[in-house]
Amino acid sequence: MQAQVSLAKLAAGSTLPVLIQGETGVGKEVVAQALHAWSPRRDRPFVQLNCSAIPENLLESELFGHVKGSFSGAVKDRPGRFLAADGGTLLLDEIGDMPLSAQTRLLRVLQEGRFEAVGSDRTLGVDVRVIAATHVDLPAAVRAGRFREDLYYRLAVFPLQIPPLRERPEDLLPLARGFLEGPARRGGRGPWILSPEAQVALRAAPWPGNIRQLLNSLERATLLLPQGRLEVRHLGLAPAPPARSAPPRSELQPLPTLVENERQYLEEALRRCEGRIYGPEGAAALVGLKPTTLQSRLLKLGIRRRGQGDSAG
Fold first, then answer.
1. Residue 50 belongs to what H/E stretch?
2. What is the pTM of this model?
3. Domain boundary assignment for the chain
4. What are the residues whose beta carbons fall under 8 Å from the beta carbon of 268, sequence distance 6 or more?
5. CATH (one of 2.40.128.10, 1.10.3720.10, 3.50.50.60, 1.10.8.60) for 166-235
6. I need a labelling partner for 157 at 20 to 30 A (CA). Which of 45, 103, 187, 252 fits?
7. Helices 210-224 + 172-187 axis angle, to 10
8. How far is the C-alpha of 18 from the C-alpha of 158, rounded, in Å?
């Protein structure tokens, strides 16, 4: 995550498009807001549009505006999000769900900085830094024909990949503690602490909804308990599975003795060497002993040689 933040700070000073990718709930919008705040455009508008929340027949109007009478219900001229973000930053969230017709017009704005409102033949120019965000695998969408390849490469000039929460478990407790401090500062509620069992459960949970799910769980917990020690039940999580303990010694198979281990080892060495002791192919060379020392050990352990004799005769 620190590496991605470093990359984001590098990208913030440019006007190039940025593509933020990651699962639902990882904080793509937060990263986009940080990019704007770190940029020279920080004092200009930050405007966002969720492309999946707008009906397809209205998306172009939302982006580029429309003139009165351009379609049923257009009772007056209305500027779109590009004009609202002029001089600033426009976040196009869930851009992977944008219809192809709007993708074509968006590509022109990215290339030329110009567009026409719906129902107008007047060309408008804007200076907008575009940040796109999506949980969709855009290269796969390109291959499937659902996303324009040229638009993908225009947006992915500076890609950022935000890792899911399950890949950054070391962030879980700092994020949770930071959130719990927020309501206490804002509303005078709290303070709260997380019990050891709650901390273990937080780290063990899979968090498919990522940070958004984590914050929702903590918000619920602070409503149930105005202050104090948050337990697993307050978080709505399953208790972490107990650590597996070693079985009692009485249930374990007895360990072989050192003599038994040595006997098995030397018998296997003899088997592999077909009973030979001397020579480069003999068992003595295999186990790293002098042939006379090996013979002495075999005699002491009562091991009889099988197969061929040794190469010395």
1. strand 46-50
2. 0.70
3. 2-163, 166-235, 258-301
4. none
5. 1.10.8.60
6. 45
7. 50
8. 5
